[in-house]
Predict the structure.
Amino acid sequence: MIDKNATSLTEVLSQIKDGATIMIGGFGTAGQPAELIDGLIELGVKDLAVISMAKLRARISN
């Protein structure tokens, strides 16, 4: 069986490449995946297609 354990959020997020499609869960601001969003911004991932049932407030810096 493949070991799917990761030791850090950065390790996991580094697998998401420019142009990827990601689907996130959550409901309202309480369910907003803040660490995911912040991590992707920090890594500079671009051109994502985000599928979500929740309304997200984008926090994008130039």
About this structure: Residues 24 and 52 are 5 Å apart (CA to CA).
